[in-house]
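Teaching note: in complex prediction, the entire set of molecules is handled at once rather than each chain in isolation. The prompt given to students was simply: 'Predict the structure of this complex.' The entities are:
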Amino acid sequence: MSTNSIASPRSNSAQSPKYKRNKASHSSFEMFAWLFMRLSGVVLIVLIFGHLFVNLMLGEGIHAIDFGFVAGKWSDPFWQIWDLAMLWLAMLHGTNGVRTIINDYAERNGTRMTLKTILYVASAVIIVLGTLVIFTFDPCPPGAVIDLPSFCPVP
Amino acid sequence: MWSWVGHRITGVVIFIFLLVHVLDTSLVRVSPEAYTAVIGAYKNPIMGLGEAALVAAIVFHAFNGLRIIAIDFWKKGPKYQRQMLWGVLALWAVTMIPFLIRHLTIVFSNFFGGN
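The expected output is the structure of the full assembly:
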């Protein structure tokens, strides 16, 4: 490699002269995670490009986004399932990506454990929160007055 | 090598955005007023440019991800990885140009058109 290239993570360097991590386990988890990144990535391209096209390109674009816009979409099971799949796949894909980066660059065992614990807790909270919001959402909340979708009864 | 660095950086940026995006969208469960207030705070040219940068990151990550899949699963993938990177950058430009025209027109005309 040329002198201005970046050393591969976990490679021999002045900071880590030789590989000190535990030997590889016999679990196939890493193989599964590698495959999951590729499969979920392909599905996410469809889900996210569709999401961006509908929300940013059609109609009034991003200017049209308000409570009524979201309520209109989530009154349709099609968009509930779409957004649920996007939430779970994107969160798992992103969490595994950041897990890989932590494993690459956090050299101390304790640092690695701490960062990954924070990552997993944050991801679990976001996945549970997002799932609950999609399924407990009321497009016509009682008492609300602004930005309601047109199908809500007039108060 | 730089595509690998770019893939990691865009991945982390998109993941951090995703955490915030789920949190702000969750405000629909609080009240229409809360959600519309926060979304209203995003409706200015600075955030509009940030959204453009985010989409640029997503589109690069998406097309370079397909390139990674081709390198891993296509027999001639490793041989053509450099040519495929130019393909990724070309597809990125072809996708971004119409998007930027549409998105930035909406962002700037609504902000300076006053409504």
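Point out the following to students. Chain B touches chain A through 40 residues (CB under 8 Å). Chain B has a mean pLDDT of 91.
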